[in-house]
Hints:
By secondary structure, this protein is α/β, with parallel strands linked by helices. It is built from twelve helices and 13 strands.
Amino acid sequence: MILSAFSPLLRSKLLSNLTLDALMKMDPETAHGATITALRMGLSPQQQGPDAPELATDLCGLKLTNPIGMAAGFDKNAEVPRQLALLGFGMTEIGTVTPRPQAGNPKPRLFRVTEAQGVINRMGFNNEGHDVAFERLRSVQVPASLGVNIGANKDSEDFVADYVLGVNRFAELADYLTVNISSPNTPGLRNLQTDEALTRLLGEVLDARAKAKKRVPVLLKIAPDLDETAMDAIARVILATDLDGVIVSNTTIGRDPVAGMSNATEMGGLSGKPLFPLATQRLAQMRQRVGDLPLVGVGGIHDAQTALAKFEAGANAIQLYSAMVFGGLDLLDRIKAGLVSEVRKAGKKNISEFVGTKTSDWAAGRL
Length: 367
Ligand SMILES: Cc1cc2nc3c(=O)[nH]c(=O)nc-3n(C[C@H](O)[C@H](O)[C@H](O)COP(=O)(O)O)c2cc1C
């Protein structure tokens, strides 16, 4: 094949660009399935060489070679955590997984808002359940930090009990756990973000963690659709526990940044570029409330500048998903290279020196 005339690096770049064009012509969920299949078959580019020391990061005691993670929802069923690590992510988060398998919402349930490089999804926690994910993870070696994002079945009589099952099942296998109470697509789930419900949830989850053989870090993933009073309450509850960190944020139910665009009126959560300002402001506002508790910034990162802005707003590490839909898998390399060059340009030694340098501006909406 003519591609064999090129170096492995160039070949993988050519392949990933060709694939991106083809994927964008498919319906989004088919394109996602094709991407997972390609990754499973080892057809993706792989990182060449180690990460630059400027990117080495400590997150809740986890030593990441770089602070960029694949966000939850891409690899819901733990099919490709190893491949994502080899691609160059410093962490990868599988799930959301629920105790029992569930089909999710009827299709179509995933939409591109192409003009804004946004995505709207109402997948509804489609996943194969704890057992399948557990068996896959048990037999794979992942050369990055592995997060397991746990949730509740839609028809569960006790959401809290489902999270406890998640902790019991994955505490030993995971490098960290994410308690996801912020999906807009499971009715009632976001109510767990309120004071009393969150107190009970975290109490039971952290009790379960304390009984596990290993002390696995537990992070809470919140929605961006919270006002400052709601965030005050969340911060108060969190700070009274030994929760290890917060992921800010999940998708938004708001549509202002995409009003009038194609697919903008589809129900579900909006992610990607149009989510960036809101999610970054919420991140900074959470930073102001939680002292130096580890925070993971997610939402709308699509280049090195937006990645850097998350650190400046207060993130210790970052995750992304939607931008890979529009930018392709080699977006990760571009972001890493951009971050390293920002660290050097600023005369700093490590990306962590940017953490919180612009928190008050982001929190006040000045940026
Ligand atoms: C198709 C899709 C499915 C998602 N599924 C989940 C999920 O199962 N659990 C979760 O915590 N977040 C899920 N998310 C949210 C992402 O993890 C992330 O928080 C959000 O998309 C914002 O990041 P981004 O703008 O980089 O995509 C999903 C996002 C998308 C686009």
